[in-house]
Amino acid sequence: MAQNLIICQFCEISKEIKWKCFSCDLVLCAYCAGKHSKFGGSEEHCIIHLKQVGTPENLDIIQKLNLKNIRCTIHEEEKCSLFCKKCKEPICSFCVLEPEHKGHNLEKLVTVYNNQLSDLKDIKKRIEKNSPGLSKIVSECTYTIDNYNEVKQKILQRQRYIKERATAEAAKLLVELDNFFKPNKEALMEDYKKILEKQSMTKKTNKLIDEALQSHQATYVLKTIGKVDKHLQLKVNADAIPQDQKFMFSIPDSLSINFGSVEVCPNNLRIINTYEICLPGVHGIKKLMSLKKGTLVFFYEKGEEEFMEYCDIHSGRLVFKYKTCIESFIGKEKRKVHDMTVTEDDVILVTSNCGSNSNKILYMNAYDNQFNKFQIYSNFPKFYNLNNGIHSFDQTILIGFHKYNCAFSKDKPAKGVMVLDKKGNCSKTLWITENDSDSLKIGSIDSLTKNINMNIVICDQHSLFVFDSKLKCKWTNKTLTSPNDIVTTPTGLIAVCDINAIHVFSMDGKLLTRIGRTDGIHYPTCLHINKSGQLLVGCEGPTKLEDSKIHVIEIF
After folding, report:
1. Distance from C-alpha of 551 to C-alpha of 274, rounded to nearest angstrom
2. Does residue 4 lie within any of the structural domains?
3. Residue 443 backbone dihedrals phi, psi, to 5 degrees
4. B box-type domain: which residues (predicted)?
5. Of the residues 212, 237, 266, which one is the last residue of a structural domain?
6. What is the distance between the alpha carbons of residues 116 and 124, in angstroms, rounded to a whole number?
7. Distance between alpha carbon 127 and the CA centroid of its chain, in Å?
8. Does pLDDT of 345 surpass 60?
């Protein structure tokens, strides 16, 4: 164990050093610290506990004490009491008589010190106030340049992949990309350089001020004020930084001479809030919905059990109100809940993968803690399974169905969508027919929803499908990696999440933008559009040790 080799400089016995007298420049034990202030002439000495030396209040006391004891560099026996503004240095009363300071503007040292100390603190406040905005602009500028470089690398990688066939097309696309970027490139890089220089200058200035404010030497303050710019300009002009756009490189489904395309697309997805789901043992959520009053409802697995949780957003965090274990209602098998929807009347509808419940829709009034069978009134044929996606809108329910594996036959289609009212009456049954060759590739109707143009949007474990109101396939997208949920926005955009990102498509199938891991979205599992039109994304934690999250994304 290291030993304390310093002893009290007053009694020269005790090693329990706790205090320091800055007037005498002595370290003291507790006993001597009490006695020291009682000696004649020592009553007003500055004695401070060593653990409190670095506090702002004590630093101020120490600096002012040091100010009183500044020795003249010319008349070493004298203390400085004046400040020569022309020479910018402390002087003593004898220096006034010296020819070096004849006719110079002099002022009390303590007055100059207080004014300069106040100026340094004001500059520091301005720096700290403006630093976040400056850092944000630097980040946005860096993102634009990185995004440009990222897309350029994707183009070059694609060029190498198809080698000679793609060389000419790659050169063409690089020209297009540069044409998008280069009109602003010179101004952007110039602004970026100025911003970095400004940031570097503010950091250096802040460091100098910190050193002066934390120093025990008052001369640090007096010397520092001349080294900093009291009128430091912190606002920057970032007009050349295109903050409202990013570049995107699109790749066709199959290899061909059609190399791809470069587009300037709006960066119109932004995370505005993130809420951690601090539930022990919960690593992911699924099927995120909301009730009429905004309460969020979602499912999660914990061990061998599955729970439905209710929570509100309050004061920037999730407030959990109520939960129920659904094992007793559905069964003990894993993956009990397949899909969920909530009606306008706060009725929760669930499809299940479990045993006898796999051919049923279960319902529960919010907070009732009791699932019941949702009765369907239809001439629906036997041997069809309802453990598919379900969606509710305008007092209408869409439910996907498919045949049991043992019941496939040539005379009946294998999959389709049933349209029900809120009482379970079937108004129509839509079949995916053999004439729709693309749609026959649907493995299962894992999730489905309705768009504002009455299109029906479906995803299975591999692809996204869009059908018209009669279930005729309009377009598909097969570039997703294990899609697991879909929603449509009030303006008709289609958002689908896979294990990597959230992808946003137009109604005619054009990929508009995406947001993923580089933006802070890790392993998205479910999507929901709230009453404000914001996109809510349920995500697993980046690692098994981190909490699940709900991100709120603004679509603009």
Report:
1. 4
2. yes
3. -75, -45
4. 67-109
5. 266
6. 12
7. 24
8. yes
